[in-house]
C-alpha cells in the first residue's frame, strides 16, 4: 500500500481533519470507557484474554489508549502510519486472527457513532463529522489489514522478505537521487535567473532589440527549469509523472532556437523551416498528451 496516496484515495480534506480534531476534548473523557468496552466486547467474541499472556495484554491495552488519543489528533503522517503498522505486526506475533481485527474496527465504528450522537445535537454538523470519522476509521482499518497481510507473508516467504529489502533499498536510493536532482535544478534555476537579469541589464544599457530577444530566450530557459523543478518536487511528494512537461521542455528549446536564428542574418531558410516544423509537431504532440493527462485526472477524480 502506498501510504502517500492513502489520504487522497479516501478523499480526506482539511475540513475532515478539523472535524475529527474538534471531537478530541469531548471524546477523551470517554477514553477509559472505550478501552473497557473494547476488551469486554472482544472477550465475549474471541476469549481475548485467554489468547494473550497477561503482561502482553496490559501492553496491548495501553497501546489501545494511545491509539484512541492519536485518532482524534488526525495526523496523517508517517509516525501515525508506522504506529498502525507496528500494531499489526504485534497482532501477528500474538496470533490474533484477522477476523478479530475486522471485528475490532466494526466495534470502533459503532462505538464512535453512538458517542458522537450524544455529543453533537445539530443534525447537519453531526452528519458532516460522522462522514469524516468513518473515513478515518476506514483508513486505519485499511492500513492495519494491509500491514497484517504483509507481515503474515513475511513470516512464511523468505522471497517476499528479500523483495521487500530490494524494494525498500530502491525506494530510498530513488529518493536520494531525486533529492540530488532537485538540488541541481535549484542551482541551475538560480544560475539561469542570474543570466536573465544580466542580459536584461545589458538590454537597458545598450537598447538593443537583439539583446532583448536573447534575454527572452534566457527567460524561456528559466521557465523550463522552474517547470522541471516543480515536477520533480511533485514526484517527491508522491505525485504522478507527467510526460507533457518533458515534451514542453523540448518545445521551449526549439522556440528558443527560432528566436536565436532570427538574429542571425546568415541563417538559412531550410534551418528556419526545420525549426518551425519541429515546433508544429512538438506542439501537436504536447496538446495530445496534455489532453490525455487531463482526461485521465478527471477519470480518477470521478
Automatic annotation (TrEMBL):
Membrane-topology annotation of the record: Multi-pass membrane protein
Entry keyword set: Cell membrane, Membrane, Transmembrane, Transmembrane helix
Compartment annotation: Cell membrane
Keyword Nucleus applies: no
GO MF annotation list: heme binding; oxygen binding
Transmembrane segments: 173-197, 209-229, 241-259, 271-290
GO annotations of cellular component type: plasma membrane
Domain Globin-sensor residues, every copy: 9-152
Superkingdom, taxonomy of origin: Bacteria
Protein name from the UniProt record: Globin-sensor domain-containing protein
